[in-house]
Amino acid sequence: MSSPMSLSPSAEAERINSAVSLVDVRRATIICFFAWTFAVYDFVLFANLLPVIAKELGWSGAETTGVNTWVTLGTAIVAFAIGPFVDRIGRRTGIVVCVVGAAIASLLTWLGGYAAGALGLGGLVLLILIRSLAGLGYSEQAVNATYLNEMYAHVYTDERSIRRRGFIYSVVQGGWPIGSVIAALSIYILQPIGGWQLCFIVAVFPAIFMLLAARKLKESPVFTAQKRIHALREEGRTTDAEELARLTGQDHTPRKAGFGALFHGESRRATLALSAAFLLNWLGILAFAFQGTLILVNGKEVSFTGALEVLIVSNVAGFFGYLFHGWLGDRISRRNTIAIGWTISALCFGVMVLGPNGNFPLLVSAYALGTFFLIGPYAAVLFFNSESFPVETRATAGTLINALGQIGAIIGGILFTATLAAAGQTAGEQAAAWIRAGLFWGCLPILISAGAILCARKAKPLTSTRVLD
Fold it and tell me: Which of 107, 112, 104 is CA-nearest to residue 129?
């Protein structure tokens, strides 16, 4: 078999174009759905078990909050780092690294928990470093979006299928609520049997699945073509590079890679707008997706049981929100879909926060609709990210913007804590503080994030004009 180095541009183009079929893309979609579901399982597991871990290790409330903040920061740093790796090594390898890395983080968390109890500060630092590896799992969604967008551009090329790409990807993104439910069920079933450690040990098994499934994943033809085009330019074969680009439907214009390239040329506007939107929106996610039950219980006089019921309803709403916004983004542009969804979300949560206490149907409806329009647009956001950048920096940009969500969560946590700390200690004063925090550090950032996303240009779906004959 001839080496790619010895093939003519037409032969190389035929090899690249024929390497991935519709069956391969459908298989990749299914594998990516499970990859994201498993990554979410690990990512959510630590947050859900943190109170149990803190109690066993004797942490105070301040120590627990501090550990969570440092872990969140470490998660963001790891998520930043994975992007350039994926742009250099490949999308397929990136997916495997993210899922296997998250599974290894789960296994090491079991050991880190013992170290934190036995080694004091040194063990605590070790646990934080281990949990920071969960940034690989968090980055899975950005890598998935980059990979699948390029795969879909290769086989879904007619007008009808192009208008279904976002909806198909929204099913993959729906792995978030499913992974969250699996994490909750594992805690319910496994913790009584083997403690919180068993929950993390079980999280290793998805890595075995991914190592087996990865053999069925094909590398993105877009990435393969661009890598070969770059190699031809490096060899001085500019004409061959241009011909291969034409035959594979790629852009042959030389571009820089790495973080610096995100702030030059047309990428600068997309980087700034999407980064600001993602960071601000994650303040709202922290407020309502992660602390929504606290706002309902402490600010709206809802019982804890009632708050859990609202949370279950909202998670179901969030799943269907993915499907709806994936479908809508295919029709009215992803940018406008995101802006409309987040605007409606801010208004719905505003009704929940400012509405009368005791009106449970109103609170349930407002919270469910708020979640539907807050979480659902992420099916369009992640696809929009990958469509807004060239192949050389597509994964770097996606993981950078995605990582800023964790920074937004840290900022939101600080603002929430400061608002509550500044309030009086009576029940009424604390309730009012929760309402203010939800309004100013939840609803307002969501609304501003909708405006920020409109500062980005509309992005056209990735297309392939490869020559098949």
Answer: 112
Within 119-174, where are the H helices?
121-132, 135-138, 140-155, 159-162, 165-173
Burial of 24 (0-12, 13-18, 19+ CB in 10 A): middle
Return averaged pLDDT per consecutive 10 residues of the chain, 469 residues in all: 62 85 92 87 79 78 76 89 86 87 84 66 81 87 89 84 87 85 81 85 79 86 87 86 82 68 86 96 89 79 72 81 94 94 97 88 90 93 87 86 91 88 83 90 97 90 56
- From CA 425, how far away is CA 307, in angstroms rounded? 23
CA angle 139, 387, 177 (to 5 degrees): 40
d(CA 438, CA 248): 50
From CA 444, how far away is CA 281, in angstroms rounded? 9
Tell me how crowded residue 255 is: count the other CB atoms within 10 A of its CB: 16
Q: Tell me, what amino acid is at 220?
A: S
From 372, 351, 370, select the one nearest 362 (Cα to Cα): 351
Q: How far is the C-alpha of 401 from the C-alpha of 404, rounded, in Å?
A: 5
Per the document, the length of the chain is 469
Given this model, what pLDDT does residue 416 score? 87
> How far apart are the C-alpha atoms of 266 and 389, rounded to whole Å?
9
